[in-house]
């Protein structure tokens, strides 16, 4: 799975979802497909048409717990709907320590959300982060 595509896809996940959503899937989405004009549903449809990740899984690790965890999962639900991929989010109040341990052990998540850019820079300087592709610069 392309790492650069995943980052861009998560950002686009807020755009909406498809009209082909089943009733069970729609229950997990904060906004019903096609409703609420604040969202650009067509951009989401375009993204969906260009990105089939059916059957793939992505691990996402960040600092969010409780209500914030619920919010990030409400965003990833749109990504899952658009791509067919499964996002496995885990959060930790000791994110900074755990991401260092995970990267050094070779068990880092596909995507990590760093609350402090200095920590990301430190891990990158040690060769423990994978840079995004140049194709993400236009996104």
CATH architecture: 3-Layer(aba) Sandwich
Q: How many strands?
A: 3
Number of domains: 1
Identify the overall geometry.
globular
Based on helices, strands and strand pairing, what is the structural class? Answer: mainly alpha
Relative helix content: 40-55%
Radius of gyration equals 16 Å
Average pLDDT: 81
Order of helices and strands: HHHEHEHEH
Specify the number of helices. 6
Low-pLDDT parts are: 1-27
Offer a quick outline of the entry:
With 139 residues, this protein is mostly helical. The protein is 45% helix and 10% strand. Strands 2-1-3 form a 3-stranded parallel β-sheet.
Protein described:
With 139 residues, the protein is mainly alpha-helical. The chain has one domain (3-136): D-Maltodextrin-Binding Protein, domain 2 (3-Layer(aba) Sandwich). 45% of the residues lie in helices and 10% in strands. The protein has helices at residues 3-12, 23-26, 41-50, 66-83, 95-105, 117-125; strands at 57-62, 86-91, 111-112. The protein has a three-stranded parallel sheet. It starts with a helix and ends in a 14-residue tail after the last helix.
């Amino acid at each position: 799975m392309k790492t650069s595509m995943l980052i861009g896809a998560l950002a686009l996940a807020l755009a909406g979802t498809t009209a082909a959503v089943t009733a069970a899937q729609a229950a997990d989405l904060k906004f019903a497909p096609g409703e609420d004009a604040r969202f650009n549903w067509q951009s989401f449809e375009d993204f969906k048409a260009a990105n089939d990740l059916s059957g793939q899984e992505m691990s996402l690790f960040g600092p969010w717990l409780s209500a914030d965890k619920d919010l990030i999962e409400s965003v990833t639900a749109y990504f899952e709907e658009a791509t067919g991929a499964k996002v496995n989010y885990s959060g930790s109040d000791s994110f900074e320590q755990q991401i260092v341990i995970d990267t050094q052990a070779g068990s880092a998540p596909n995507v990590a959300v760093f609350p402090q850019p200095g920590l990301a820079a430190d891990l990158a300087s040690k060769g423990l982060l994978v840079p995004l592709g140049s194709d993400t610069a236009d996104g």
